[in-house]
Amino acid sequence: MANQRYFGLSLTMFIVFFLGIVLWLIYGIYLNSLPMILANTITAVSSMYLIIMKLKHK
After folding, report:
1. CA-CA distance, 57 to 42, in Å (whole number)?
2. Which DSSP string corresponds to 26-48?
3. Whole-prediction pTM value?
4. Out of 9, 10, 40, 44, which residue is the most buried by the measure of CB atoms under 10 Å away?
5. Please, are residues 21 and 43 in contact by the beta-carbon 8 Å criterion?
6. 41-51 as b/e: b if 16+ CB within 10 A
7. What residues contact residue 41 under an 8 Å CB cut-off, 6+ apart?
8. Of 18, 25, 19, which Cα lies nearest the Cα of 40?
């Protein structure tokens, strides 16, 4: 039960969050900022995983 708590959050929220992270990633690439690129890449991958799990267990 505890490992499924995030499924209470909406798919729309996850997608909006993911798109925001992608925009920050693009901005980091534009600025050529390695810390920004790395942080947002890791967050985007994690967020994409949550979206996939949300769709898979819908």
Report:
1. 23
2. HHHHHHT-HHHHHHHHHHHHHHH
3. 0.80
4. 40
5. yes
6. eebbeebeebe
7. 25
8. 25
